[in-house]
């Protein structure tokens, strides 16, 4: 088992990219193992680590199918629907409230 090459922050050679950088290029790691890592030193804690993948081994991102789009739309609609009044709030309901702000503040004023 070999050790990963470690590079200083912003000093990685060409041909390596993080997941976000791959995604910006329309790529994904595609099952490859981590090829290297970046380390950014910090004063009081351990270094921040970012994993790097080889760009030439990356695969294109799979396109969204109509079924995936429908499932995503249904999940987002569920996050906007208030369980108390059943209306679409027009925004994602905060987990801290568990209901739309209208219902949450109506419960406070009634108490």
Sheet with most strands: 4 strands, mixed
Principal-axes shape call: elongated
Spans of 5+ residues with little confidence (pLDDT < 50)? Answer: none
Across the major sheet, the strand order is 1-4-5-2
What is the residue-averaged pLDDT? 91
Oligomer: single chain
What is the C-alpha radius of gyration, as a whole number of Å? 22 Å
The N- and C-terminal alpha carbons lie at a distance of 63 Å
Give a description of the structure:
There is one protein chain. The chain has 3 helices and 6 strands; from the N terminus they run E-E-H-E-E-E-E-H-H. The chain has helices at residues 19-24, 66-80, 101-110, and strands at 6-8, 16-17, 27-28, 36-40, 48-54, 59-60. The strands form 2 sheets. Strands 1-4-5-2 form a 4-stranded mixed sheet. The longest helix has 15 residues, at 66-80. The model has no long low-confidence stretch (mean pLDDT 91).
Give a topology summary:
Blueprint: E1 6-8, E2 16-17, H1 19-24, E3 27-28, E4 36-40, E5 48-54, E6 59-60, H2 66-80, H3 101-110
Parallel strand pairs: 1-4
Antiparallel strand pairs: 2-5, 3-6, 4-5
Which keywords apply here?
111 residues; alpha+beta; 4-stranded mixed β-sheet; 6 strands; elongated
Q: Can you describe this structure in just a few lines?
A:
Helix content is 28%, strand content 19%. The chain contains three helices and six strands; from the N terminus they run E-E-H-E-E-E-E-H-H.
